[in-house]
Every structure is written in structure tokens, then in C-alpha cells.
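Two proteins were folded this term; both appear here.
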Amino acid sequence: MTVNQNLKTYSLKDIENFKIHGRTDETQDPLPLFFNGSGVEVNVTGTELWIDVEVDYDTHEPWIWTALNDAFMSRQMLTAGTGSVCLFRGMSPEAVKNVKFFRELQAMSEDCGCRLLVRGFRCDGEFLPVRSRRYKLEFIGDSITSGEGTYGAEEDTDWVSMYMGSSRNYARMVSDALDAEYRLISQGGWGVLTGWENDPRHNIPSRYEKICGLAEGEINEKLGAGKPYDFSSWVPDAIIVNLGTNDASAFNQPAWTDPESGQTFEQRKEADGTFHPEDLARFEQAVADFLKMIRRNNPTSHIVWVYGMLGYDLTLAITDAMNMYRKDTRDSNIGFLQLPVMTGETVGAHFHPGEKCHVKAAQAIIEYLKTLLNA
């Protein structure tokens, strides 16, 4: 292979023009990409561009995706170590190329060693300003928002990194359609009150106010994951919450027992199959409390709770909780949107919504936000 002798190496601190996507500690060098849908974007001339990265993990290897001039270009697994990924090569030198490098894999709460750091770029061109998008959107959710099942065949049921994809989830589809920057905060199996297995530690609100409270361990702490998130640094026009699916599953699972204290936690059903009223009320209070937390940190953003891609079990409970919140706070800048449920034709890998289901969900959200934002 002919080596391009004109390539120059740049650390991120050497580059004036680039855009960071996703919550992170921007003082870090190299730059950590904690969340799915986080990444870096550049406009650059030249014939060739490489990105230099640092990767490690204990169990779940990070996957990434790239785009060139807003067209999906590649998707791949990254192995541990320091290396480079070619973003384009052999192109016309004068043309300005818009390039995106994004993390596919969600923040891995159960793999403290999982990390993806951007060290810089190598290219033979010039870095130019990156335009701001028209809107900013924040998406909060579980495995659906992590894009689990958007890659792979219907019969694929292994819980591994390659089946998660922020490149095919509804959040990216909505954002592309509305010319929006987006940020994701999601974790498979987690809920508003409890995880799918009744573990009350697995709730998104408890981690929402940190840069990436889902990334644990000493390494991630040094990378800034546990720092308080500066909500004023990036103000979303709308916040889309897609939680409740795992809370519904918890009602069908046995009690969770804390391995250290021996205490148990359980969301119960009555003998006739209905939700235990005390436990349902506990879930509704968690929804109302999370809305208050979101509003406290995002005073101007519209909040829309979306639900239904994997069933409608808690639709009434969520809307009751939202009505309770409205009554308590007089906040009318919120809404609820029911999404199309997954069918046999739209199912993906691991019994999760596939790409077709995400397309249908995205269409519903796009129409809602177009009216809201006058887009």
C-alpha cells in the first residue's frame, strides 16, 4: 500500500474546528465517548483522513459507525489498544467533506473497563468550521433507545455488543429528519423505578444528573463520568423520554434480593393479574418525580413521554402520573405520545424492535415534533 507522506497528526487540542456530540467531559484529552450516539464531527479538505482512538473493555467491545456527507458509510467493532480508523482515502483534495465518527454501543454499566477515547486525527487537509443544526434533542430510554435489536436476524438472541446500534435507532432517524443534534442517555434493562428484574438500583433518574452516571469504576471516574452534568452547556428544544417497558416487565418477575443486605424489592401483581395498587402508585410517583427532575434541570425544554414499542401495559399509569405532575406543578410544556407496537413484521434481533419498528416510531415522533417546533 502506498503511504501518504503528507499526513499530519493532530490531537484534538490542536484543532480549532470540530464538534463534539454527546455528554462528555470536554476537558479530557483524549476525549471519552461515553454514550451511544456520542462522537466527533469535522469538516475537512484533503485526500485522506484517519481518526486515532484508544479502546479497552473487559467483556463488551465498543462498536462505532461513520458517515460521510450525511450518508452512512461504515460500522465496525474496535479491538482493545491504541489504533486508527480510516474515515476516507483517495478523495478529491479540494472538496470539503463532512465526516462523523459515532459510538454505537450504549454506556456499559456492567463493564467498568469499557471505554472509547478519541486521541485526534491524521489528515492532509484543513479543518473547517462545522455548522450548528437547527434543533437540539435529548432522548432518554432503555434498550430500545440503545438500538438493541436493530442489527441481526430475528433468531439472534445473544446479548452482545454487535446487536446494539445508535445508527439505526429512532433517535437518529428523528434527528436527521429535523436537522437536529441529539444526545442519548439509555441503558438496556433499566426503568424509571426499577430494572426489568426488580433491581431498584437500575433506574435512569438516579444517574441522569451526572455526565455519565451509567459508566462506573475507577477508570471512568478519572475520565469525568461521575462529574455533575452542566445542563446549561447544551439546552435541548425537546426531551423525549421512552421509559416504562422494563418497569412493566418487573411486575412479572420474582422479588430481587440485595446480595449484601438481604433486603428484597418487588413490583407485584394481584391474583387476578392486575397491578398491585401500592406498587403501581410507587411507579407513578417515580414518573412524576423524574419529570420534576428533568424540568428542574431543563426549564425551557418541551418534555414528551413516548411509550408502546414493546407493549402498552403501563400507558394509563404513565398518563395518570403525568396528570398528577401537571396538577402539582402547573407545567403544561409536556406531552404524551403512544408509539406503534412491534409486530411480527417489525421485530428485530433479541426479541426487540427492529429497524422497521424504529422507522414507524420515528415517523410518529417526527410528526409530533414538527407541530411542536413549527419545523
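Next, the second protein.
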Amino acid sequence: MKIKKPILLFLACILFTIFAKAQDKEVTITVDTLSQNVYMLTGQGGNIGIYVGETHVFMIDDQFDRLSAKLKTAISGLTEKPIAFLFNTHMHGDHSGGNARFNSDSVTLVAQDNVRERIQLNLLPKVEAKEISAEDYVKMLPEVTFSKDITFYDGDETIMAFHVHNAHTDGDAMVYFIQNNVLHMGDTYFSGRYPYIDLKSGGSIDGFIEAHKKALLVINDDTKIIPGHGRPSNKAELQNYVLILEDIRTKVQAQIDSGATLDEVKANTSLTENYDSTHGTGFINPERIREIIYTSLKK
């Protein structure tokens, strides 16, 4: 029996809805307390930072749109204070996908200049295709942007946000809570795993390593670090991470200098073998990190 197209479409929609709900149901929001006022929320996507100030909440990143209700419930379990600032560390959807659900008349959305531009470029075609509404499009866009750095003050706390150039993307910013001594590094740091560097969005291996070195100049031995992905970290672990990336970069560069092709570098397991068991089991596997670093250096 031949099934008509409208019925097939209807069945496909049902299956998609069931899958989406099941995927959402599996996500649990967990909370790590990093200091008296700063928390890290983990769900699906980039790690979220929550600072509970004297009268309001300063939120860093918001994961995916579909998780917004769960995230709001988790935040309400920490405080009844309203969110006043939402800061995007960069433009990727697993860090900014919930912007429209959190943005409101009482919330100011903040990011580096390039973040607004890239979100615009990514979402305008979706507005034209009627995949998102014009209202949601506007609410997805940062309302306050900065070039190099921006500072917020809340009682005794000073919150410094600073741009790092061409690291994970071209719009990355780190956020440092000075009194609480907590640094949110966004996707310029993947704790305990090889990093994803978005070369098409302005990222580079050199900028990625330099971002780490900039962070190391700001923090001390007691600083708690919120990475974009992975467990909370510290200065010693970040220092070791820099050494790992510098070692791999040096080895890949030597291969490039000797005339090795991309395929040869991707197949050369010796370039990363010292770290594959500890850092190569995440989203970016050993072959992929060799490819990313090779492509970045060739640019």
C-alpha cells in the first residue's frame, strides 16, 4: 500500500517531536558551587556561569533554546534575584541558543562586537526562511557590545570581561570575577579534552594558545576556572594544557616544514600519542585535532 505524502509528513513530525522531547528529557542540569557567589551550571552545551550579586544575577552563556525552562528552574533554586545581565562568551548556538528565552526588558545582553555580527549573519537566513520569528531574531542579538574589554561593578565585586583575538573564534571573551576569584573562559578552554577551534569563524591555534597565556597572567593558584566544556579547572591544569598544545603545534609545524600533506599528518598518530588517552576521547578526537592544527598553521 502506498502511503500518501501528507501522512508521511505527519508521521515524520510526530517522530521528530518524540525525539526532541526524549533528548530534552535526558538532560539534567547540575550545579557546581565555585565560590560564595559564583556557580557553574552543566547541561547540554557550553558551561554556564552564574554570579549572584547584591540585587541581581549576572549570567554567562545560556546553552540551547530548548533547555531554557530547565535552566531557569535551576537558577531559581540558587536565588530569587532576577537576571540583569546575560553575557555571551562567543556566537556558537550551544552558548547563545537560549538568548531569546532569557532576553527581556529587564535583561541586557552583552558580547564582543564580532559576536553580534556573526549571530546576525547566521540568523538572517532563518528569518527569511521563517524558521525563526523576527521578534526572536531581535532578542537573540547582543544589545551592548564592546571591542577590547568592559567592566561591571556590583558592590565589592568587579567583573572584568576581555576580548581574546582569533582563539576559538574571532569574538571570544573571558569573564573574571575578581573578588570571587573565578574566571569563565568560554570555549577558549576545553578542560581535559582536545579543543574545537572554529577556523571558519576566525579561530586559530596560535590565538587559542595566546588566549590561555593571557588568562594565566590574570589568575593565581587559587583561581577557579569555568571552561567552555569539561569540569571546573585551575591554574596548574591550564598551564599543563598550554604545554600540551604547544608540543603538538611544534610537532605539526615540523611536519609542515618537511613537506607533509594534511592526510599524512592526520594519519601520524605519533604527533599526539602522548596525550590521546587523557585528552582524545571527547568531541575532538586525535585525528581531528591534528587536522585542525595543521589547517590553522597552513593558513
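The chain has a mean pLDDT of 93. The longest helix spans residues 235-257. These notes refer to the second protein only.
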